[in-house]
Amino acid sequence: MSFIGQAWRRFMFLLRRGQMDRELAEEMRQHAALTAEKNIASGMDPEEAQYAAQRQIGNVTRQMEESRQSWGFPFVESVIQDMHYSLRGLRKSPGFTTVAMLTLALGIGASTAIFSIVNTVLLRPLPFKDSSRLVHVWTVSTMFPEFTLGQSIPNLQDIEARSHSFETLATYELHERNLTGSGEPEQLRTAEVSSSFLTLFGVRPVVGRDFRPEDEQRKDGDVVLLSYGLWQRRFGGDASIVGKAIMLGQSPWTVAGILPPGFPFPANVDALVPRNIPPGNLRERQAWMYMTLGKLRPDVPLAAAQVEMNGIAAALARQYPQDATGIQFPLVTIQDDRTRRGKPQLLALLGAVGFLLLIACANVSNLVLSRGLRRQREIAVRAALGASRRRILRQLLIESLLLAMAGGVAGAALAIAGVRLFRALAPAGFPRIEELRTEPLTLLIALIISALAGILCGLAPALTITRGDLNLPVKDNSAASSAPVHLFSLRSCLVVAEVALALILLTGSALMAQSMVRLMRADTGLTTDHLLTGELTLPKALYDSKDSQHLFLERLLQALQAQPQFSGAVLTNTPLLTGSVTVSSFDPAVFGSNEKKTTLQIRSVTPGYFSTLGIRIQRGRTFNERDRTGTLSVALINETMARRFFPGQDPLGKEFKLGDDDKTSSQIVGVVADTRDSGLNAPPRLQAYFPILQNPSERVHILVRSSLDPAAAIAAVQRAVWSVDKDLPLSKTRTMGEIISESVAEPRFRTWLLSIFAAAGLTLTLIGIYGVISYSVRQRTREMGIRIALGAQSGSLLGLVLRQAIILAVTGAVCGVIGSLLLMRLLASQLFEIKPGDPVTLIGAVLLMMIVALAASWIPARRATKVDPMIALRYE
Amino acid sequence: MVRTAGKNELLPGTLEMLILQTLKNGRRHGYGIAQRIQEMSDDVLQVEEGSLYPALQRLLVKGWVKAEWGTSENNRRARYYTLTPGGRKELGAEAENFDRIIAAIARVMRTA
What are the helix (H) ranges across A193-289? Predict the structure, then answer.
């Protein structure tokens, strides 16, 4: 209490400082007058009495000064005084201030931007209620080792019955469905969910009702929940739509309600419909198609739940050895799963900006240091006048903090622009990018980083400058001694660190860039020029049999081939180069192989697929018009599969079947070359092709080759589709070039960012080396003069200076190479066909660094050779 | 700073205590405080004007005294200081402490 009261009184006195001053002065005058009166009374003459009184009262100014100290906050005031002093100093050397501020702004801006992105994307909880308790309950089976699968209904029921970790479990499956009726037909992203789905997320429809368990039985007919976005877009936000029917997949669905705006799961979902489990799936323990989410009980940690799930998986494996051997139920929080894709690249970027910030700090540290050494006399004078070392240290630190804060303000502006730019340029599908915005937190981060940077770049120089005998420089008139830059002086260490950090940045971005180039040049084995693609989903209501699907496919193909502007038109069931694959389990035992069950990538195609995409036939034949339902089931296999199972044998005529589908075997009629049809960076796997007319599918991908402009070609494709079925929307229409470009959008984006950071780091290092070398040349002017006077050639002087730069650069480079070898392993997962320790890259980066070091020291070195010996000796 | 006639310095903080003591029985102005201390100590203690006013400012900030302007007996404008309740309490505590120290010193002087 008394402390607060005292602070309050101090504050009030501070505010009334002028008045207090006047009153004190008057009071002391009165005192002097009274003393004088007393002196007169004791017999002095009046004039003498006045003087005596003044003598007695002493130095009034000093006493006023002392009194004032008890009014305000002397510490705060002295800090403000230091700030004024620092500001004056900074204003007086605008060149130093500008360079240091901009350098820091660069480092602070970049790290603030990336850090606030990391915070939004990786650290901030997802906008769900209790989002930390929401987990995916996946199945991993030895049958599909590289995939995470959903649950089968029997396994899910066992999990529900045996586990005690979950408050709620819910399932969802994604399906495309066509919306028809009013307006153009549109393909919607829908999720079939269990009735517990919204409860799990703690969400209720904003209009209408939630699903009820009986909705899963379709007792009240089909019902649907619309996303807020779809409701606004297609139905003008009209609440009377609830209770009415809309046409989804050619059958009527009653709108039960509207989801809240921005309901974020599954991403970009347009509508939710209740799941409807076909009777077969109720028993099939290996139908792992129901993506499952669980909400953990508040008191159950993830690890404990995982232990329980491991127990259940083991028990199921014992109970159902046929169906459940080797399965596991990994739990992964929704948050971790959502951010999995952006995580490695964001962490790489965070590392890069961290290095950039350190380089910037090292640079500014060096600037502060050389300025400080120039100011040593001034500092010595202050010390002589009674400033303590602590006070001088504090003033120097305040100066660098001010500098960092100024840099921080510019950096925050840079960060705000950077975050906007990131949002605008980030590849589509980057996790949580829509949540990115400038917020107070960004500024707070900038402030914290600035403060750290201020201390980081100010402390070491301040300690160095104030070290030792502060009085020496006053006596020693030759402030610039002729000591060369020692390898282990602070300045040199800073430069070595800069070189090392910049080299690491450089190798990182060079690896990324090369990986990018290799990725772009990767041979997919496919001819993709002038190729256009689009996707159709055949509604189950109309295309409920293989025959109807078959008929549609045949008529569509005819309609497309009838268009003269298409030089090729083919249909397939899986998109190309988008990362998605269709796989089936496969038992190599049919080939007499004793290999374990494995997975096979499968694709259904029309006969023209191989010629249109330029895939070489190595043996046998391709498909033709006669490969349709009713004729012999045939298949083509790729080179990898032929080599794996038929080394030195002829695979033609051999038969095999997929998974547990024991109805038909297919006969191998040909072998085709390997392709990378799922993605540029996906190495060829075991793959088999089937005629689409023998294996119709409800998902259809159209590929046409046309020299038309893409928009006209898309319109022509859409017309061909509508000529067969007027209600079918064509979606995801893109050129193959766009798809390829999108598939490398992420690596390209991070390569660009890393390259920008590396270039910035390299530039700062260049400035840093330049600064140190020119400082040392200036320090050694006298020595250079003597050398010239004694007949040194300019070549040898040049060598002298450059050697110093080379020593620093080589030391830094060695550290940098070691650092790179240690750190680049972390990038391995993001690299394509290049090793993290690629020697060519490392050597290239080191060479570039040497060139930069030489370039940076060339100008100061030239200056050294031009020293006029007379001036040099008179210098100082 | 308070000096004894023989220029010996007193214990630090003593001046504040003496000032508070002079205000115990009513308000005084700065000159009056100095005079009072000198009188009471039979001229042994002389308050240096140079330390009187800074000390008064410290007491003001600590909230132990209050200051107000008034008119002195000979019709001059003067700033009068009064003890606050907090100041009175502080004086009590300091006086007690002082007595203890003096008694202790006296014991040492007698015996050693």
Answer: 197-201, 228-235, 279-283
Residues linked to residue A272 through DSSP beta bridges, in sequence order: A191, A225
What is the maximal distance between C-alpha atoms in chain B? 54
Q: Which two tokens stand for residue B89?
A: 């309490």
What's the pLDDT tens digit per position in A454-492? 888 888 888 877 775 555 555 544 444 444 444 457 888
Q: Would you call B29 and A70 a contact, using CB atoms and an 8 Å cutoff? A: no
Best CA proximity match to A165, nearest among A296, A332, A311: A296
Query: For B49-66, how does the pLDDT look when each residue is reduced to its tens digit (9 = 90+)?
Result: 778 888 888 888 888 898
Smallest CA-to-CA distance from A512 within A360, A344, A675 is with A344
Nearest CA in chain B to A2: B62
Q: Which of A2, A21, A34, A59 to mutate to test the interface with B (most CBs of B within 10 A)?
A: A34
Exposed/middle/buried for residue B47 (C-beta within 10 Å: 0-12, 13-18, 19+): buried
Q: Tell me how close the Cα of B77 comes to any Cα of chain A, in angstroms.
A: 8
| pLDDT bracket for residue A663 (50, 70, 90) | low
CA angle A412, A112, A821 (to 5 degrees): 145
Give this prediction's pTM.
0.75
Residue in B61, B66, B72 to test binding to A, most A beta-carbons within 10 Å = B61
pLDDT digits (tens, 9 = 90+) for A50-109: 888 877 777 777 777 777 777 667 777 778 888 888 888 888 888 888 888 999 999 999
Give tens-digit pLDDT for A784-800.
Answer: 888 888 888 888 888 88
Nearest to A23 among B34, B58, B79 (CB): B79
Quickly count: other Cβ atoms within 10 Å of residue A181's Cβ.
12
- Tokens coding B56: 């008064």
Torsion of CA A614, A619, A625, A626, to 10 degrees: -170
Q: How far apart (Å, rounded) are the C-alpha atoms in residues A536 and A558?
A: 16
| pLDDT value, residue A468 | 58
Supply A178's token pair: 């066509």
Q: How far is A45 from chain B (nearest CA, A)?
A: 21
* pLDDT exceeds 70 at position B112: no
The residue of chain B nearest to residue A54, with distances taken between CA atoms, is B49
How much is the ipTM here? 0.82
Nearest chain A Cα to B30, which residue?
A: A31
> CA of A21 to nearest chain B CA: how many angstroms apart?
11
Asked if the bond preceding A266 is cis, omega within 30° of 0, the reply is: yes
User: Which residues in B lie closer than 8 A to residue A74 (C-beta atoms)?
Assistant: none
Q: Note whether A543 and A700 are within 8 A (CB).
A: no
| Min Cα separation B78/chain A (Å) | 7
* Cβ <8 Å between A30 and B53: no
